[in-house]
Design brief:
4 domains, 19 helices, Arc Repressor Mutant, subunit A, alpha/beta, about 15% strand, four-stranded mixed sheet, Rossmann fold
């Protein structure tokens, strides 16, 4: 698949590179979940300029350094002394080299040094502070484990705190990019195919690339490609999160499984897990791991008890609902049964994902100051799929989302809006809209 989007990120990385080469060294941190395209972005931004790319595998430090030396020699056509055994000595050498020439130094999966030798971070801080102003190294470090990368660079107790000139976080592709990709690779695509791509990938470039490269871009082709023997998707959720969560991953996985299966409140999650207290786990999943987010009815007060939890990532939500929950099918290779289960559920499941699609579409229009949902936790239990507050004062759009417009019940919708206006938004001018797959 060709390189898509990232124009702003490319421009920023090239701007920083120019400053590093012409003035003094710069340190940029590129973060984002695995498969988001960090390495591809960095490669694109540095192509055609002197660059060293070092991938930090979980190995003995001396073995790792021994692997790095020939890479540096070949990449920069530079003399590197034999006998280097520590990353400390190698990094000092590279910073000294940067006093004579300009180059990009890219260190991928940087957080792995936390498992190899934590003192690397203080050693790097020492040499960075010593050489930064008199060298021209464009240092770019990237990492996929959110909690560790956040700790290394944004915890004031850590030696590299405050050393990053820029922290660049990558997000999934926007909706217009998904449409561009579908137009390029499947010109006759339907809106259902587009919704399936959004549902199964959440806009994550690597997953989209897998579908494109394997010519699987209809709903059924995507399901067939995902659910089969040796599928790259089968263990993907586990591979993404097990390092984040460590030894307590089983409890975290159980919580995420409950949320993926519509247990969205703390009490519902605790009941699904046999009554154990999950407050601390939910807090860490939200604040430390960035995997879930808590939502409350729009315009409700910060301390409201009407809180729900959702999984941020479309792919992970889908993976926990179907792959993790139905592991027994996968273990006995009954892929046909799992494909049927997903196909039978598809219409209902994507009905909820369509709400997320339109919320994202609203957000990307930049016409709103707040976008959410509204529900009444007591009494009549009314719910409204989308309530979006326009940038103009006291104007709002309230949306009912249906896959098929024929399913829309205008009388019930009007009743809900009347209640919302009386109880919550008496000063707002409300525009009522039904959105369906026709409006994607």
């Amino acid at each position: 698949m060709k390189f898509y989007d990232r124009e702003e990120e490319l421009a920023e990385l090239k701007r920083i590179q120019q400053l590093a080469f012409e003035e003094s060294s710069r340190l940029t941190v590129v973060t984002g979940r695995r498969r988001i395209g960090k390495t591809s972005l960095i490669a694109k931004a540095t192509e055609g300029t002197p660059s060293v790319y070092l991938f930090v595998g979980r190995k003995n430090e001396a073995v790792l350094v021994n692997e790095f030396v020939p890479i540096i020699r070949q990449s920069l056509d530079a003399f590197v002394p034999d006998g280097l055994q520590t990353f400390r000595s190698l990094f000092q050498y590279l910073m000294e080299l940067g006093t004579h020439r300009s180059f990009n130094l890219i260190i991928d999966e940087f957080q792995e040094f936390y498992n190899i030798n934590k003192s690397v971070f203080s050693d790097m801080q020492n040499f960075w502070d010593q050489y930064r102003k008199k060298s021209n190294v464009n240092l770019i470090v990237s990492g996929s484990i959110y909690s560790l990368m956040h700790k290394i660079f944004q915890d004031e107790k850590e030696p590299l705190f405050g050393r990053a000139d820029n922290i660049l976080k990558l997000y999934p592709f926007k909706l217009n990019v998904l449409k561009e990709i579908m137009t390029d690779y499947a010109p006759s695509y339907t809106n259902d195919d587009l919704l399936a791509l959004y549902t199964f990938t959440g806009g994550i470039p690597k997953y989209i690339e897998l579908f494109c490269d394997n010519r699987a871009l209809t709903v059924q082709e995507m399901i067939q490609f995902m659910v089969r023997d040796n599928s790259p998707f089968t263990d993907e959720g586990k591979n993404l999160l097990i390092e984040e969560f460590g030894k307590n991953y089983a409890t975290y996985f159980s919580i995420l499984g409950a949320i993926a299966n519509s247990k969205n409140t703390q009490s519902e999650i605790e009941s699904a897990l046999g009554g154990i207290s999950v407050g601390g786990y939910l807090k860490r999943l939200d604040e430390d791991y960035n995997v879930i987010t808590r939502i409350r009815p729009i315009l409700s007060k910060e301390g409201t008890q009407a809180v729900r939890f959702i999984i941020r990532d479309n792919f992970l939500g889908f993976w926990f609902k179907y792959f993790d929950r139905n592991r027994s099918y996968i273990e006995i290779k009954n892929f046909a049964a799992l494909r049927k289960l997903i196909t039978d559920d598809y219409t209902t499941y994507t009905g909820k994902v369509l709400e997320l699609y339109f919320k994202q579409k609203f957000a990307e229009s930049f016409e709103y100051r707040e976008i959410g949902s509204w529900w009444n936790p007591k009494g009549n239990q009314y719910e409204l799929d989308i309530v979006a507050l326009r940038t103009e004062k006291n104007k709002a759009v309230v949306v009912e989302v249906k896959r098929q417009r024929k399913e829309f019940r205008p009388e019930l919708f009007d009743t809900k809006i009347k209640y919302l206006k009386e109880k919550v938004m008496p000063k707002y001018k409300i525009e009522a809209v039904c959105l369906s797959m026709e409006d994607m």
